[in-house]
Model the fold of this input.
Amino acid sequence: MSRLRIMASLAAVAIAGALAVVLPVAPASAAACATPWSSSAVYTGGMTASYNAHNWSAKWWTQNEVPGNADVWADQGTCSGGGSTPPPSGSCSYPNWVAGRTYVTGDIVKYTNGQYYRASHDNPGYDPTISTWYWDPYTCSGGGSTPPPTGGFVVSEAQFNQMFPSRNSFYTYSGLVAALSAYPAFATTGSDTVKKQEAAAFLANVNHETGGLVYIVEQNTANYPHYCDTSQPYGCPAGQAAYYGRGPIQLSWNFNYKAAGDALGINLLNNPNLVQTDASVAWKTGIWYWMSQNGPGTMTAHNAMVNGYGFGQTIRSINGSLECDGRNPAQVQSRVSAYQRFTQILGVSPGNNLSC
Done:
């Protein structure tokens, strides 16, 4: 190589070295945002969602727990490309706003003025036109008519309120609808009549167990220490008196908390209080029992209704050992009367074989 070429090469190396020192390094681009977090979606450990321009990873099973406000979510850093995407455009199937009803970030409602609003923060039913810090206007095209019952449930919110006029505010309709995803066959199997009969049967038994959705926990506290079966290998990690009746079917005993938790993907054995603090979890335990447990009966309550055995067999599955076969006819009649009332509200015949 000639001396001229050698000097030119050295000069090029020197210039490149200088540029390497002087030029700034381009910042790494933010990760793409995952699918936006949804208050109604169920997330299990390792699943990701985006919220407020951050990606979040679920540590364990969660639903309706806002990323950043709940320990269940691990922050995976900032992201770009979305994170708060609204529901598909062209859809106006959003429920009417209800004063005093709890809303979570992202919920969309139709206000009394005909306009739509999206919750920008969790709030206990603040008026969208007054508490503007909690709500953002939302443009909705494609109609605006009030949709059918939320989630396709055969019982509308108005009918639910008619059934339970004095219910505890804990037992929310939205919590019930959110719980339906755990067992998609519930109140969706068979004809429209059968679907409504099953929903009425479930709610009638719930009505009896909770005094009209008034009681969240078992009222006789003296019973609390009795629900720990120490013969179970997993014991009672939450405490001997921690497994008393809770929720719409009054879930009790450590083995039932474990079985329900295992089926639902929720650690209820260690966290039984979730059944009295999270409405969706509470409703899920009730539907779990209804769909999967025979109890003292010979079939699940679900199978009793969809296979034509009648409402009486649901009583046997839930508390037949104490009520059926003449043991407590007044309690049986209480359940039957509620079922007849609820089927009337839903506009269907109660069918046959009402008693056990």
Observations:
- The chain has three domains: 31-80, 87-147, 181-346.
- The longest helix spans residues 3-22.
